[in-house]
Specification:
heterodimer, A: alpha/beta, Rossmann fold, 2 domains, four-stranded antiparallel beta sheet, 10 strands, globular, B: mainly alpha, two-stranded antiparallel sheet, 2 strands, about 80% helix
Chain lengths: ~250, ~350
């Protein structure tokens, strides 16, 4: 069953169609990859789903409800949490406090007992491997640790659907392995995950299915095996001439 | 003794010493506070009327700075025209007491509620604009509210002002009442902010102040919490305004809607440390005592010096005096800051 589905989702900035008539659905419990060259409209699509940007046309349904017109905070309360490509930690607050905000609001908002929220935040930070940095100010963290805080904040919201916008960009190979492992564990907890990622190894290794955008249009939605053989995808990433040359070689 | 046991013992010792240090630190704070409160409680019985008035003024500005800190320091909205709510509280209190014979304490509370509701109604449209624009809009609110007070002479007395009845006690006793009233407001406001900032609502305020769009995407209804923050702030401005009206027993629009008071609040909060609990109080005490003892003599220069303090503090000590007092920063760091800016 689809937990999130979009029909004809479009976002225009003046004459530019950043997201153009995209249909998609994410099945409950799966990891869906969202890939595409730079400027394909991946982050814009996530912003539209989350209500951070108003939708131009089309509808988005989450658990059967039309959320197309909802504000960002209402979407977050309903159970969709996201991370930002450029981490947006809350400066002036500690790592623990940042994570507690997630536990106090988001879908987890029913919990108002501060001690309970603090304990849950500690558990979440231990899960993402930040237990040693709980009392650090977020400004003092490395890029890799900021990404972990971003993940912890989103997880503390107790989401049913997690949208991860390039959580691996800028990480080294060991860190990427760790994050991939975390995402698998998140999936095992029953959370549906959408990952925007440029790290192909991670996308191919993690995702059940992959949605490919190019110039705002959906050009493919299939399993990783099929996607890696799709001519249009290869063309989008490596250019027409490469695709043509490859076609000749096959012939 | 096995290695396991000895490591356990050493860990136990560290834990104990940590606890002791933590406790000792908290105890120091408690002792300091008790001494300060005892001193302030005795002061009006030993000091002359002049100093009682000065310290009452300090309490008043400490309360205002503390309340202003909630909307500006924590929530990040520079509400420059917050004195509008001081004036609202003052006028509502005066009108209720003079025209409807409402008892003064009741009138002050009603005045504060009216000020808070007024701020919240204005907040829904105004808190959608950010940065300088919001700041300028609040200045507009202050001026507009002052004009309302000017132009409703049948209720407010207009430019003639409004005179409140005097309490039938000696002037000294009256000043003592006001003194303890303002001290009470300062303590009440500080306790309220302390509790608020530890609550879910306080976390929402700080998250909005840190990054509003991130806060929204975490499920915080930012409009609602901004409105609450401004309402909370305005409530205490209203309380202070009501007591201020009774203290001076005569109010007129230029006095209670005075933008110079706004500048003072900004300077005090930044000087002590914006976005901290003790900051506004420390700032109010230091600035008011200095200005009473030194610059009070040069009335015109006074405002210029206030401006210089704001510039100096925001450029060289953006976190105010508090880090210096807490020992988190040093004069050396300040000098380094000066060098880095090639001054």
């Amino acid at each position: 069953m689809a937990i999130l589905s979009g029909k004809g989702v479009s976002k225009r900035f003046g004459a530019l169609a950043a997201v153009d008539q995209v249909d998609f659905e994410i099945a409950e419990g799966e990891i869906l990859g969202l890939i595409g060259p730079n400027g394909a409209g991946k982050t814009t699509l996530v912003n539209v789903i989350c209500g951070s940007l108003p939708i131009t046309a089309g509808t988005v349904h989450f658990k059967g409800q039309d959320i197309s017109e909802w504000t960002a905070n209402r979407v977050a309360e309903s159970g969709i949490a996201r991370t930002f490509q450029i981490p947006k930690p809350l400066p002036g607050m500690t790592v623990l406090e940042n994570t507690m905000v997630g536990g106090l609001f988001g879908r987890a908002r029913r919990s108002r007992d501060m001690n309970h929220v603090r304990e849950l935040a500690r558990e979440t930070l231990a899960f993402v491997g930040l237990e040693a940095r709980v009392d650090a100010r977020v400004e003092a963290l490395t890029v890799a640790d900021r990404k972990r805080v971003e993940l912890a904040k989103a997880l503390a919201m107790d989401p049913e659907l997690l949208l991860l916008d390039e959580v691996m960009a800028g990480l080294n190979l060991v860190e990427i392995e760790t994050v991939m492992d975390l995402i698998r564990q998140i999936k095992d907890r029953g959370v549906t995950v959408l990952v925007i990622e440029h790290v192909m190894k991670a996308v191919m290794g993690l995702c059940d299915r992959i949605l490919v955008l190019h110039h705002g249009k959906r050009i493919a939605l299939d399993t990783p095996q099929e996607i890696s053989r799709d001519d249009r995808v290869i063309e989008a990433y490596l250019g027409e001439r490469y695709a043509a040359a490859k076609g000749q070689r096959v012939n | 003794m096995s290695a396991d046991q000895s490591s356990l013992v050493s860990r136990w010792k560290t834990a104990i010493s940590d606890l002791r240090q933590g406790r000792a630190k908290r105890r120091t704070y408690v002792i300091l506070m008790v001494v300060a409160l005892a001193f302030l409680a005795v002061l009006p019985f030993v000091a002359g009327n002049y100093w009682v008035r000065v310290v009452t003024g300090i309490f008043m500005f400490a309360t205002l700075s503390q309340a202003w800190n909630v909307i500006t320091g924590y929530t990040g909205y520079f509400a420059f025209g917050n004195v509008a709510f001081l004036g609202t509280g003052a006028y509502v209190t005066a009108v209720l007491v003079v025209r409807y014979s409402v008892p003064v304490p009741v009138a002050i509370v009603i005045g504060a509620v009216v000020a808070a509701v007024y701020a919240m109604l204005l907040g829904f449209p105004l808190l959608r604009i950010t940065g300088h624009y919001f700041s300028i809009a609040t200045i507009g609110v202050n001026l507009a509210t002052r004009e309302i007070a000017f132009n409703l002479p049948s209720i407010t007395g207009g430019g003639m002002g409004i005179t409140m009845p005097l309490m039938r006690v000696s002037i000294q006793t009256f000043y003592r009442y006001i003194y303890f009233g303002m001290l009470g407001l300062m303590l009440l406001c500080t306790a309220a902010v302390y509790l608020l900032m530890r609550s879910r609502t306080g976390f929402a305020f700080r998250a909005i102040g840190a990054d509003e769009s991130a806060a929204r995407s975490m499920g915080i209804n930012t409009t609602l919490y901004k409105v609450l923050a401004w309402g909370f702030s305005a409530f205490f401005f209203g309380l202070v305004g009501g007591l201020y009206a009774y203290w001076f027993s005569f109010i007129e629009p230029p006095m209670v809607f005075n933008p110079a008071n706004a500048i003072k609040i900004v300077a005090m909060t930044y000087l002590g440390g914006i976005g901290t609990l003790p900051g506004p109080i420390i700032g109010a005490f230091i600035l008011e005592i200095i200005s009473e003892t030194v610059w009070g003599r040069f009335l015109e220069l006074h405002l210029a010096v206030l401006g210089l303090i704001i510039v100096f503090v925001t450029v060289f000590m953006p976190n105010g005096l508090l880090p210096l007092i807490r020992g988190e920063s040093s004069l050396r760091a300040l000098v380094q800051n000066l060098r880095e800016r090639r001054l």
